[in-house]
Amino acid sequence: MSGYSPTLSSLFYEIALTSLLEIFYNTENGIRFVIRVRQWQLDVALARTERITNQLEASLPNATRVLDTDVTQLQHDMSAILRLRKEDLKKAERRHNQTLLFCVLVVLAAILLSWVLKHRGKKLFELLDIE
């Protein structure tokens, strides 16, 4: 091994091991966070952001499906409520018409009774023996 000459990759590996502490604290100039550390922090933040974005994009179809189901259920419920309200309105209108018809019949009966009593009241009283 007397003719051993380190290759470029082995030198880089040795430099990387010795300079690991320099990444976190550079003793030469006293800078705690060198550019490589800041870039590493940005890369970690970007990776985290991309992971969250991918999770949100993956959950988007499921959320859309759930919302579509909810909207469909709401439309079904609203149409059922509308149908019930229409039926209630028809029943109320029928009751109103029946009440109105009853009132008209009572008024007509009262008019007829007053006319009978006015024109034929004496004969009616004589027939019934009412004095």
Structure summary:
Keywords: Membrane, Transmembrane, Transmembrane helix. The protein is mainly α and 131 residues long.
- SSE run: HHH
> What percent strand?
under 5%
**Beta strand count:** 0
Continuous helix count: 3
Q: What is the end-to-end distance?
A: 154 Å
Largest sheet: none
What is the 3D form? rod-shaped
Instruction: From the alpha carbons, calculate the radius of gyration and give it in angstroms.
Output: 49 Å
Share of helix among residues?
A: over 70%
Spans of at least 5 consecutive residues whose pLDDT stays below 50 are: none
Q: Kindly state the mean pLDDT as a whole number? A: 80
- Classify the secondary structure makeup into a structural class: mainly alpha
Structure description:
The protein has 131 residues and is an all-alpha fold. The chain is 84% helix and 0% strand. The chain contains three helices and no strands. The protein has helices at 8-18, 20-24, 35-128. The longest helix is centred in the middle third of the chain and has 94 residues, at 35-128. The radius of gyration is 49 Å and the shape is rod-shaped. Keywords: Membrane, Transmembrane, Transmembrane helix. The chain crosses the membrane at residues 99-117.
